[in-house]
Design a protein that fits this description.
The chain is built from seven helices and nine strands. The protein is α/β, with parallel strands linked by helices. It has one domain: Alpha-Beta Complex (Spore Coat Polysaccharide Biosynthesis Protein SpsA, Chain A), CATH 3.90.550.10. Helix 2 links the parallel strand 2 and strand 3. Helix 6 runs parallel beside helix 7.
């Protein structure tokens, strides 16, 4: 397989089939590509709906976690189950349209030295699409994101302007380097990136087009802000204990 698109899903029974159709538009245009949906132990009928919908479709499969562990666990299961040369994960609501998924893939193909490509919503060339009535909500989220990024840079946990974008691509032979992942919820992307840096993976940031579909969010600024700080402290301690550092293979200098 040349390309796997990993899509974590959770409690999306009402709209997931329309998104599957959009993903299939892309994979049907590409040779040897597949979609791997990974359910994070949904409490609704997401699994049943997906299972019935994808019957007979050869380039899409569904994996399931046996308990709710967080988006990061679903992403890592998909990345590890794939044997594709290139692997990309993205959000199931297609906040990043399939054109942007294709853009990540093209960047990975463009240079064999690039091991990872990440979306950067803070890039001045990125474009955000939203209904004007969501301006206040989006402004608040953007301010929170900027504050988090300043905190992470202060803690020396990132070199990047946007750690949390849900669109990232990998050269498949690098996936084994992320075996040290230990944070699967809000701090997942932070740990993923710091491991990539410590493992000397070449990372390219790209501008993207992204969409706010509505102003509803399951994220609580206070509750989840505390959780991400807790995750960040754990990652900071792991990093200071050299748990993420590159280890040169035996016999090589």
């Amino acid at each position: 397989m040349n390309l796997s698109i990993i899509v974590p899903v959770y409690n999306c029974e009402k709209w997931i089939t329309t998104k599957i159709d959009e993903f299939l538009i892309l994979t049907n245009q590409l040779i040897d590509s597949e979609i791997i949906l990974v359910d994070d132990f949904s409490s609704d009928n997401t699994v049943e709906i997906i299972s019935n919908y994808i019957l007979g479709i050869s380039n899409i499969r569904l994996l399931k976690l046996d308990k709710n562990q967080g988006k990061g666990a679903a992403v890592m299961k998909g990345l590890n189950e794939s044997n594709a040369e290139y692997r990309i994960f993205t959000d199931c609501d297609l906040a990043y349209p399939i054109s942007e998924v294709k853009k990540v893939y093209d960047e990975l193909l463009s240079d064999k030295n690039i091991g990872m490509v990440i979306a950067n919503r803070r890039d001045l060339n990125s474009i955000c699409e939203l209904n004007p009535k969501y301006f206040k909500h989006v402004y608040s989220r953007e301010k929170s994101g900027a504050t988090l990024n300043k905190f992470l840079k202060f803690m020396q946990l990132t070199l990047f302007d946007d750690t949390q974008a849900g669109l990232k691509g990998f050269r498949g032979n690098n996936i084994k380097k992320f075996s040290g992942i230990s944070v699967y919820r809000f701090g997942f992307d932070i740990e993923l990136l710091i491991i990539a840096v410590r493992q000397k993976i070449v990372i390219k940031q790209i501008p993207v087009r992204y969409i706010y579909h509505d102003d509803q969010s399951t994220v609580s600024v206070i509750r989840d802000g505390i959780r991400i700080i807790r995750d960040s402290i754990k990652i900071f301690i792991n990093d200071k204990n050299h748990q993420y550092e590159y280890k040169q293979p035996l016999g090589k200098k």
